[in-house]
Amino acid sequence: MSGLRGARHCPGSGEASDLKSPPDARLREPLTEARFQQLFGGTDPEWQPQPQGELGWSRWCGLWRRWARACSWPGAWRLLRARLPPLRWLPRYRWRAWLLGDAVAGVTVGIVHVPQGMAFALLTSVPPVFGLYTSFFPIFIYTLLGTGRHLSTGTFAVLSLMTGSAVERLVPEPLAGNLSGIEREQLDAQRVGAAAAIAFASGALMLGMFALQLGVLSTFLSEPVVKALTSGAALHVLVSQLPSLLGLPLPRQIGYFALFKTLAAVLTALPQSSPAELTISALSLALLVPVKELNVRFRDRLPTPIPGEIVMVLLASVLCFTSSLDTRYNVQIVGLLPGGFPEPLFPNLAEMPRILADSLPMALVTFAVSASLASIYADKYSYTIDSNQELLAHGVSNLISSLFSCFPNSATLATTSLLVDAGGNTQLAGLFSCVVVLSVLLWLGPFFYYLPKAVLACINISSMRQMFFQMQELPQLWRISRMDFVVWMVTWVAVVTLSVDLGLAVGVIFSMMMVVCRTQRAQCLALGLAEGTELYRPLRDSHKLLQVPGLCILSYPAPLYFGTRGQFRRTLEEHLGLRECGKRTPKTDGPSDADAAGAREVVQLASRCRDAGIHLLLAQCPAPVLETLTQAGLLDQVTPEQLFVSVQDAAAHVLSRPVRRQGGGTGVQWAVRPWPEQGVGREQKRKQMRGVTSSVPHVSLPSLLQELTDPKTCTVWV
User: Which PANTHER family would you find in this protein's record (predicted)?
Assistant: First the structure.
């Protein structure tokens, strides 16, 4: 657009020019989309108009060919290899280089899984042994189905906290209290069944998402939302463990503002705390926290991380046994861990409607955390993650493990980091972890009889270290993106003040609102030519860019859908001088959805430009976008010769058009009135535009329509 401040103009006809042309700039003709398909395309593009019968028949033929390939033996083998990843990575396994690292890392993580699984079972409000079951079955299943080579699955504090809140609400403890041994066993059995039913429903939801190929949903749980969720949940875990640290027999608070209710109850009952359990908690934290710091600071020097949890478990068990703390000071201990595996039980399907509202956020958290962790290490070690296969792996893991009384599980931050630091290379490390947990279930369970529950509470708190330290990233996040910072803070405050599941919903909704706000704030950019090149860049970025008189190149870098079509219309009317032309093209018929709304807006723009004598060219349109525009009636307003493969081709076509000279004849020149300058009134701008002769049409060249998030949602680059 000529006339912008600080911008230079290319000389008009008859003027000398020292403009440097890029090498090989005119060695080929400008390519339209149709010409490009003729030269390089194999078949007719989908956006070209076809008879409805032929279009439907071609699609049916394509589907039939895909089904036929899938039903053949090679197709069945490809499907089997895709669904069982060990068939791909196990034949290429480097036994000499990787086996020792996987064995050491697997055993190290397995040792941590034992006390951590029992500790997280307390968060879930079930007996500790069920945490061991949840540390065995999911790991084994993910080893067979998962694509994350460095991912460690099992019990996760955030999920355990969410499950415990749901279990306490579904199976509340009687108000009378002082339950007998039989009543306590019945209550525990009901709570185990409720936790297993939630795991079953979460797994079924993830399998449904896999069947619909909804792995892309992980993108809606942005990194600020996930980090704020885990950081806020870590504070919930810390507060919920205070009664166990102090030896206070307080009921668990659930619902909104549970964190503040728990703090109030703890402060009220603080004089009744047990000195023995308080001493055990202080000594345990005094050992666990420094060991965590040593493992982080000297991770490069240590051959394997120090297993502080298992050391603390052994020391506390020996101390409690030798000093009879359970009988002399009434210290709460783990008790007998039953050996072997539980009998498989199918969950009560009648309870499913009650738990679906709790299972959905847990399924989303499971997938979001697992996909995020897997992607981080996949990028670090240069391999790929199949998000839909991850849905299958975690869905089957939760579904099958629930039959063995396991509660919801996912990838875990602490054990995944530990696995990588210990030298793990592939999913085979998970099998070594399973061996360690299996040995405890079969033979070593009695050694944990005298383990104080206060130690498990300390393990829960120390495992939150990484989640608490995520708040250190806030200053950097503020410098990088203020919007992401606001999303982080809103999600964190909602999680802390309300609840984890409701905070997740608030974070997701607020994050999507920020995305919409970003699209609403997009500005239309005028592009100019960089001298000596074929590159077009926004004129506001540099005053050295050139503008061709009579040629307007606009860029609208925002998605075009029903929410932005009004802003798109107003912006283009302002730049093209169409606001006062007085003509409105009636809406074309078509489906009334967001994609159709954006496509119809482009069709209306083309019609109004044609009526105003403005020659509209479209450039750089992806095939799916062209198909959507064609179905909305674009080719009724423009011809295929107005669709170009790039901005450079469209501009070259415009500048090489033969126009009629004033004295007769034709020639290749561009002598038109410059584009109306900024600051000119609307009426004067309209007169200037109408003053352009019809023999030399005014040109608007949108470089448009690149889709971003939705394959059918157009992002208009004008």
Answer: SULFATE TRANSPORTER
The answer to whether residue 580 scores a pLDDT higher than 70 is no
Q: Any idea how long the chain is?
A: 718
Specify the 3-state DSSP secondary structure of 643: strand
- Tell me the per-residue pLDDT of 509-552, one tens digit each, with 9 for 90 and over: 998 888 878 777 767 778 888 877 778 888 887 778 887 777 78
Tokens of 478: 């503020």
Measure the N-to-C terminal CA separation of the chain; round to a whole number of Å.
12
Tokens 């503008």 sit on residue: 547
* Cβ proximity of 106 and 431 under 8 Å: yes
Quick one: which of 103, 156, 90, 149 has its CA closest to 380? 149
CA distance 294 to 292: 5
Nearest to 388 by CA among 572, 174, 206, 546: 206
- Of the candidates 626, 628, 587, which has an alpha carbon nearest to the alpha carbon of residue 605? 587
Other Cβ atoms less than 10 A from the Cβ of 507: the count is 26
Residue pair 560/716 in contact (Cβ under 8 Å)? The answer is yes
pLDDT band at 398 (very low <50, low <70, confident <90, very high): very high
pLDDT in tens, 17-75: 444 444 444 457 787 778 777 777 655 555 565 554 444 555 566 666 666 666 777 77
Strand partners, 559: 715
The secondary element (H helix, E strand) that includes residue 8 is: strand 8-9
Is 143:428 a contact under the CB 8 Å cutoff?
Answer: yes
SS3 251: coil
Say if residues 413 and 466 touch (Cβ distance below 8 Å). yes
Q: What is the DSSP string of 424-464?
A: --STTHHHHHHHHHHHIIIIIGGGGTT-BHHHHHHHHHHTT
Collect all residues with Cβ–Cβ distance below 8 Å to 357 and sequence separation of at least 6. none
Percent share of the chain, pLDDT over 70: 80
For 459, other C-beta atoms within 10 Å of its C-beta total 26
Q: What element of type H or E holds 33?
A: helix 33-40
Whether pTM > 0.70 for this model: the answer is yes
Give, in order, the Cα–Cα distances in Å from 245 to each of 149, 161, 319, 454, 489: 36, 17, 17, 5, 29
User: 229: exposed, middle or buried (C-beta count within 10 Å: 0-12, 13-18, 19+)?
Assistant: buried
The token pair at 66 is 């895909």
- Asked if 619 and 704 touch (Cβ cutoff 8 Å), the reply is yes
Per-position b or e across 25-51, b if 16+ CB within 10 A of its CB: eeeeebbbbbbbbeeeeeeebebeeee
Cβ(186)–Cβ(340) below 8 Å: no
